[in-house]
Structure formats: structure tokens, C-alpha cells
Design brief:
5-stranded mixed beta sheet, alpha+beta, 56% helix, 12 helices, 7 strands
Length: 366
């Protein structure tokens, strides 16, 4: 496999954008939490600017920011914990009911911290103007901040939705290279007379592979399904390449029922065979290791690397596509990294272990 991706050329075809279904953000996701902290702190800064004397120096602005932060920062943290704890409830609600529940929760938190504000501010305020904030200002701050946060995440999800169309186009048009199909059919033809059972199994594997590739791959699927698909794909390649392809599976610690984006491994294995095994003058080892550590899943793919191979040219489309889908599903909690170490090409994928009960039933998860 190479850093580049010649088997995935850019396509000029454009399909209609898949229907977008609004959904609440995953309030327990680390990336979501970090964005919430940044967005709300911008609101705190804006409130400090409004309350600071226009003609005052920077110290006046900083004083107002600190006075508001005394209550705002604990409120933000409490809000993050509360929304994460309420995630199971949000999963059961339709989008607009979920939005209403979020607003109700934030209003309750706002009321709680209003009384905390009344108790704390007189102790730290140095002037009457520092201590002046009406209940209406406090409520407006919470309501507006909540509305803009939800609007931001809805807008962000909409902006990422074209990736769903691209992911499906990749599956339909570019995941199986024409030369792979041509060589596989020739391999079947060579087996039909002498080994009809083996040829039949190869055709069944090809049919299953294309069935999955042409499906509507928007929903997360169990990892065991993706591994089964990869095994079927590699069986086809092993019939074609014979002993040149050595495969090592290390999946004893694999979370079989964890949900992953479809076609997250097969395109990488196809790259590994095309770029790593085919250029080999002799045998080549393809290693797939899947393990867990706490609530994180780790996938490591290793194959030979050939810097002088004619296969090494093109673009990053397959890897970029997988990165985009990981971001869409898991935000900052998932990552993909490709490295070259000596004569080996190594791809590492990290993502949270997600089970069916932790996904929103109405969410377009790809």
C-alpha cells in the first residue's frame, strides 16, 4: 500500500445528496465537549464585552470576564455532565422533542446557577455595576447559548452530509478496481473444470462482496460483518495470488459487536494487496490486528512497502474518505494514521467501542 491511492481516481459523477435527518450531537463525545467549551466561552467573552465600560482599559474587560466565569465555568461543566448523563433519554426522543428536552435541561441549570450567582457575586464584586445582572440577562444567556450551540452542530452535520454521498459513490464506483474484477473472473474460469467447488465458492464470495459494496452504506455495522467481508475479499485474492499472499489475523481481542462504518477495512486491504503484495517478487505478509484498550478499539494493518513500485502514484482518496467518515461518526475520538517504517506500510485506526444501544435510532450514521 502506498500513501497515495491510484485505484480511487476522482470521479466527475454527481449524485443527488442523500436525505439529511437532523439529530442531536453526541454530548458524551470528547470532540463535542471541547467544541461546546470553546463556543460557550466565546459567549462569556461577548457578555464581558457588553458589560465592560466602553472607555475602560483591558483590565475592566478581564475583570468582567472573570466575574462572569466564576459562575459560568462551573455551569458549563455541570451542563456537559448533565447532557452526557441524559444521553440515553435523548436517544429515545425524536429530534424536536430532544431539542425541547435540551432547552428544558439548560433552563433548569440556568435557574440553579442564578441563585449561585446571587450568592457569590456580592462577595467578589468591587463595584455596584459589577454586581448588576438581571435574571432576564442570565436566562437570555443560557437560552441563546443553547440555541446557537444546537444550530452550530446541526449546520456542521449538514455540511458533512455530502460525505455520505461521496462514501456511497466510492463504494459503487471505485472500491473494486476493474483489473481485480477481470483477474478474479479469469481465476474462476481456470478453476471451473478442475475445481468446480472452489470456483463456486469464489463466485459466492464475489457476489457477497459486490452486494455489500452496492448497498446503501449509511448505517453503522457490526465489526464482525466487516471482518467477514474482508475474509471473503482476501479469499478471492488468495485464490488469484496463491502462496504469494500470506495473511495473519490477530483478532482474539476483537469487539465483534462494536459498530463501525461499513467499508472501513476492505478498501485498505485492497490497497495493501495492490500496492504491497502484487509488486512483491516473492511472498508478502498482510497482517490485520484488532484489539481493545478500555473503551477504545485499535486496528493495525501492515503490509510490504515498495518505494520503486509503479503502483505508487495517485491520490489519497481512499484514506481521506475513511478519515472523513470516522470524523463524521466519532469526531475527535477517532483517528487514522499511515506510516512507512522501513519496508513496511502501517495503517493505524483508533475509534471508540460503540454498541447499538448508544446510537440514535433516527441518526443517519453515515
Amino acid at each position: 500500500m502506498s500513501i497515495n491511492d491510484p485505484q480511487n481516481p476522482p470521479t466527475s459523477l454527481h449524485a443527488p445528496q442523500l436525505g439529511y435527518t437532523p439529530r442531536l450531537p453526541d454530548f458524551c463525545n470528547l470532540g463535542i465537549m471541547l467544541r461546546l467549551l470553546v463556543i460557550v466561552n466565546f459567549f462569556v467573552l461577548a457578555a464581558a464585552l457588553v458589560r465592560a465600560d466602553v472607555g475602560a482599559d483591558m483590565s475592566g474587560l478581564m475583570r468582567q470576564f472573570l466575574l462572569i466565569s466564576i459562575v459560568a465555568q462551573p455551569a458549563i461543566i455541570f451542563s456537559l455532565v448533565a447532557t452526557c448523563a441524559a444521553k440515553p433519554l435523548f436517544l429515545k426522543l425524536a429530534y424536536w422533542r430532544g431539542v425541547s428536552a435540551v432547552f428544558a435541561l439548560e433552563c433548569a441549570i440556568g435557574a440553579l446557577f442564578w441563585y449561585a450567582y446571587l450568592a457569590i457575586i456580592p462577595l467578589v464584586a468591587t463595584t455596584d455595576s459589577d454586581a448588576q445582572m438581571s435574571r432576564m440577562q442570565f436566562v437570555v444567556f443560557f437560552v441563546v447559548a443553547t440555541a446557537i450551540v444546537l444550530f452550530y452542530f446541526d449546520l456542521r452535520a449538514r455540511s458533512l452530509s455530502p460525505a455520505l454521498t461521496e462514501a456511497r459513490l466510492q463504494a459503487l464506483q471505485a472500491r473494486i478496481r476493474p483489473h481485480f474484477l477481470f483477474n478474479s473472473i479469469n481465476a474462476v474460469l481456470s478453476l471451473i473444470r478442475d475445481e468446480p467447488k472452489r470456483a463456486e465458492r469464489m463466485l459466492e464470495d464475489m457476489a457477497e462482496l459486490f452486494r455489500v459494496l452496492m448497498a446503501d452504506n449509511r448505517q453503522l455495522k457490526p465489526l464482525e460483518d466487516e471482518v467477514l467481508l474482508c475474509r471473503q475479499y482476501l479469499e478471492i485474492e488468495q485464490i488469484r495470488l496463491g502462496d504469494r499472499l500470506k495473511i495473519e489475523w490477530q483478532i482474539d481481542d476483537m469487539p465483534a459487536h462494536a459498530l463501525v462504518p461499513p467499508l472501513i477495512l476492505q478498501p485498505l486491504l485492497e490497497n495493501a494487496v495492490y500496492h504491497g503484495i502484487e509488486p512483491q517478487p516473492g511472498d508478502g505478509l498482510l497482517s490485520i490486528a484488532i484489539s481493545t484498550s478500555g473503551k477504545q478499539m485499535h486496528i493495525v494493518l501492515t503490509n510490504p512497502y515498495h518505494s520503486e513500485s509503479t503502483h505508487v502514484s495517485g491520490n489519497h482518496m481512499a484514506i481521506a474518505n475513511i478519515k472523513e467518515r470516522l470524523q463524521l461518526h466519532f469526531d475527535a475520538e477517532a483517528s487514522l494514521r499511515a506510516d512507512i517504517k522501513g519496508a513496511q506500510y502501517i495503517v493505524r485506526i483508533n475509534m471508540p467501542v460503540t454498541l447499538a444501544s448508544s446510537t440514535h435510532p433516527n441518526a443517519p450514521t453515515e
